[in-house]
Design brief:
Structural class: alpha/beta
Radius of gyration: 21 Å
Number of helices: 12
Mean pLDDT: 96
Helix content: 25-40%
CATH superfamily of the largest domain: Type I PLP-dependent aspartate aminotransferase-like (Major domain)
Number of strands: 15
Order of helices and strands: HEEEHHHEHEHEEHEEEHHHEEHEEEH
Length: about 400
């Protein structure tokens, strides 16, 4: 009899020659479970998605209630749908002025695409400045922002008019000019292995954008929803973007994203031409209901307030001679080793022991740690023990 794994390899389009092939039957809280009942502690939250853990009761209840009312109705932006309206209003209350107008999409890369169009339409300019080693998505517009070109060269030509600068380089900001429609950057760089901004850097970026009339776009697709110790990471740096990108943790496990701006900026998509940006499934009522429950839960609980203490526990426990550096921004850590091979040895050991971890797109020498915010101190201690065992094994194997 053909197995699910065989069917997976035959009929699911592959993204690499060596998928993990971990078969999941169910998930609950911090854990994924295989068909034979083996638990796997999820230390990466589905790459930053399951901020409340898997199947959080509030999210499940919201989804079930919405399914009992209606699913898709009409393309986004035509009907008045309670889940969309309530979520947008709560987001606006959580954000500083003038971030008040929300455009819902299905994913982070779609949020990037929408923001790029909005910036070009509003400013009348075409050049976009992005940071090297940043990741904003894989569709062609978002991929055009990517550098180095390892993951994009095969798909050229991509969008023209993209200028790349080094993150945390103040001198590089002179490349932002009167030709620049927008500067897009991650508040904390993720796929380069968790790189927070240096002191004063984001303020300098804001000042330069204001000086030349460019919009500032903060990508908080990974950094948002409590991951760094505040609801939105930019709150810790005293800088407000013109456009904010959200996704991943936003839906508590359901697919949703958004780009958010002032009404003045966002209105540019509604005229000359009308329907300047449209989406069929963006703001799906079930996803919006799940996202509303996620945001309400984060606001009503102390999960975000616990992030810094849990971060500190990871930092205290992750001590080993073979660890080159540990970088962190809340419950988002990069454990840098000296080689990709050693990282792979640790990842394999962790998986064998029932711990799911990963590496970074632009930093294959670092282990990714980004658990659901509900992780306990006991679970952190166990996870660190397994990682240190993997490091010892890697040392013995050379």
């Amino acid at each position: 009899m053909i197995t699910p794994r065989q069917l997976f390899l035959q009929h699911i389009a592959q993204t690499s020659p060596t998928p993990l092939l971990l078969e999941i039957e169910r998930a609950e809280g911090m854990y994924l479970y295989s068909p034979d009942g083996k638990p796997y502690l999820d230390l990466i939250a589905g790459i930053g998605v399951s901020c409340l853990g898997h199947r959080h009761p509030a999210v499940v209840e919201a989804v079930q209630q919405q399914i009992g009312k209606y699913l898709h109705t009409l393309v986004y932006g035509e009907f008045v749908l309670a889940p969309q309206v309530q979520l947008a209003e709560l987001l606006a209350r959580c954000l500083p002025d003038p971030l008040e107008s929300v455009y819902f999409v299905n994913s982070g890369t779609e949020a990037t695409e929408g923001a790029m169009k909005l910036a070009k339409r509003y400013t009348g300019r075409y050049e976009i400045v992005a940071c090297k080693k940043a990741y904003h998505g894989s569709t062609q517009g978002a991929a055009s922002l990517m550098w180095p070109r390892d993951f994009t060269q095969a798909y050229y030509p991509l969008l023209p008019g993209i200028r790349h600068i080094e993150y945390n380089c103040e001198w590089c900001l002179q490349q932002i000019t009167e030709r620049t429609a927008a500067v897009i950057m991650e508040t904390v760089q993720g796929e380069w292995g968790v790189r927070p901004p240096t002191a004063g850097y984001l303020q300098k970026v804001r000042e330069r954008c204001d000086e030349v009339g460019a919009l500032l776009i903060f990508d908080e697709i990974q950094a948002g929803y409590g991951r760094t110790g505040s609801l939105f990471a930019f709150e810790q740096y005293g800088v407000v973007p013109d456009i904010l990108l959200l996704a991943k943790g936003m839906g508590g496990g359901m697919p949703i994203g958004a780009f958010i701006a002032s009404r003045k900026i966002m209105s540019a998509l509604s005229v000359n031409p009308i329907l300047g940006h449209i989406t069929t499934f963006g703001g799906h009522p079930v996803s919006c209901a799940a996202a509303l429950a996620t945001l309400e839960t984060l606001r009503e609980s102390d999960l975000i307030g616990q992030v810094k203490a849990k971060e500190q526990l990871f930092l205290e426990l992750l001590q080993h001679p073979d660890i080159v550096e540990v970088r962190s921004a809340g419950l988002w850590l990069a454990v840098e080793l000296d080689s990709f091979e050693r990282v792979q040895t640790v990842i394999k050991h962790c998986l064998e022991q029932g711990l799911v971890t990963d590496w970074f797109l632009f930093n294959s020498r670092s282990l990714r740690i980004a658990p659901p915010l509900i992780i306990t101190g006991e679970q952190i201690r166990w996870a660190c023990e397994v990682i240190l065992e993997g490091l010892a094994l890697a040392a013995r194997s050379g």
